[in-house]
Amino acid sequence: MADQVSADVNSSDGERPAGADVVVAVREPIAEPIVTTRREHPPFRFLIPICLIFLVPLMHGTQVGEALMLKGWVLVGLGGAVFSLLMIVSGIRLRAGQSDDALGLAAWSLLIAYLFHQFEEFGIDLYGNVNAFPAYMNGVVAERFPDSGVVLTELSTYRINTLGIWVAFLLAIWAGHRLPWMGLAAAGVMLTNAGIHIGLAFSMGEYNPGLATALLLFLPLSLRYFIVSRHKTEAGWSAALLGILFGIAVHLSLASFVVALNEPHWTPVTAGLLAGLISLPIMANLIARLVSSRRGS
Fold it and tell me: Are 176 and 169 within 8 A, CB to CB?
C-alpha cells in the first residue's frame, strides 16, 4: 500500500511523485438504449382514402345511401375539403420515410381543390346562384348541339362527380409513388377541365359556374402536381403528357356517360365502363412497369 500511490496525471503541477505508479481508471462503456423506430402512418394518408373508396360506391349501391347523398353530396364534399385543409394547416404532415411526402400532399391538394370547385358549380356560384352549372351547361349544349340529347340531371351530376371524381382522386392519393400515373391522370383531368371553363368564358364572353376555382386552383395545382411528380417519381414528362391526353379523352367521352348515368337503374355495362375508366391509369401504369422490367432484364 505504501509503495503504490495514485496520482492524478492531470494534476495542477503536472508532476507525480518519483517511483509512484499511476493508476488509470478505465470507464466501462455505457450500453446505449435500444431505440425502436416505428414507421409513421399519417392519419389521412392511407386509412381515410381507402375507407372512402369503398364507402362512396356503397352509397350508390343502396337506396337509402343514394337518397341521403343525392341532395347533400355537395355539402358533404365541402365539409371534406374544409376538414382536410384544416388538418394540413394545423401541422399534420404526410411523411415518406424521414421527410415530408410532397407527392402525397400534392395529391390531396388536387382533391381538395376539386371539392371546392364542385361547390362553385353545384352549390353556390360567385353570383349567389344555387346549382347553377347544370342549367348553364344544358343551355350551352342545347344551343350548340341541339340534337345531342345530352342533359345534365341531378342524378347524372351526382354520379359523375362522386364516382368519377371522388373515387378517382382518392385512388390517386392511395397510388402515390407506387403507381404515379393515377395522380398524373387526375391532374390531367383537372387541367383539361380548367381549359374548358376558360375556353367557355372566352367564347361566351361571360362568367360560367366553376370558372373562379378553375383559374385560382385548377391551373396552378395541376401544373404543380406535374412538376412534383417529375421530381419525386420515375414518371417523366411523357407520362405527364399521357395524363393530359387522358383528361381530354375523359371529357370527350363525358357526353356518353351522362346519357348512360341518367338512367335510374345501374346496368352491368354502365358500371363496368365507369369502373374501367377509373382504373385505366392504374392498369396502364402496371403494364408500363412490366414492360420496363422486362427491358431491364
Answer: no
